[in-house]
Amino acid sequence: KAGVTQTPRYLIKTRGQQVTLSCSPISGHRSVSWYQQTPGQGLQFLFEYFSETQRNKGNFPGRFSGRQFSNSRSEMNVSTLELGDSALYLCASSLGLAGGQAIYNEQFFGPGTRLTVL
Amino acid sequence: SQQGEEDPQALSIQEGENATMNCSYKTSINNLQWYRQNSGRGLVHLILIRSNEREKHSGRLRVTLDTSKKSSSLLITASRAADTASYFCATDAWVQGAQKLVFGQGTRLTINP
After folding, report:
1. Using beta carbons and an 8 Å cutoff, which residues of A are at the interface with B?
2. pLDDT tens digit string along B27-82?
3. Cα dist. B26→A64, B8, B55, B105 in Å?
4. Which residue stretches of chain B are H helix?
5. Cα separation, B95 vs A9, whole angstroms
6. Quick check: helix, strand or coil at residue A17?
7. Of A57, A90, A103, the CB nearest to B92
8. How far away is chain B from the Cα of A70, in angstroms, using its nearest Cα?
């Protein structure tokens, strides 16, 4: 099975721009989660999608949004970029469980997208 | 403050020695997981222990969980240079109104040949 893929791997943007990152989960995985990793804050949960629905959201401003498509591929968008958005953005997929409650079992991470905001 | 906190923040040992890392958390959990990350790449899942389990083994890894103390430890035996990486604990828990996988700040492990 192919692993989780993320595109692009590296991105340089300027303040005020917007960016869209893509994540393709492992085939058969229905849950996709996104994380932001920075040296200061560590790994922070952004949101989790299951069957095209956002089930959980972390404490990030509304500039951070995401969506999931019927084939489980997911995108996240950051609008009006700020310098502090520079980070490694990681997505992870898992089989997930149906129903309202997400139980986070083994997560399979992609290599990440390194975003630099100038 | 973080749901999960790890100590030590950094650990340097000789190849062949055992490495122990600790994780503490604040709220009740469904499970606790350990991940490894090499040099800013994606994380690799190592082991998962459920809240009703006390100990689990996988190869050279041994994880313990004490829910009464809200703590866990990861032991890597007979360390190798390839074990050099950052190790994170992650708890599946309800935090601030959302169910999340919450990561600790990590322990940077260096294995010296």
Report:
1. 4, 33, 35, 37, 42-43, 45, 48, 55-59, 88, 90, 92, 101-112, 114
2. 888 889 999 999 878 899 999 999 999 999 999 999 999 999 999 999 999 999 99
3. 27, 18, 20, 14
4. none
5. 30
6. coil
7. A103
8. 23
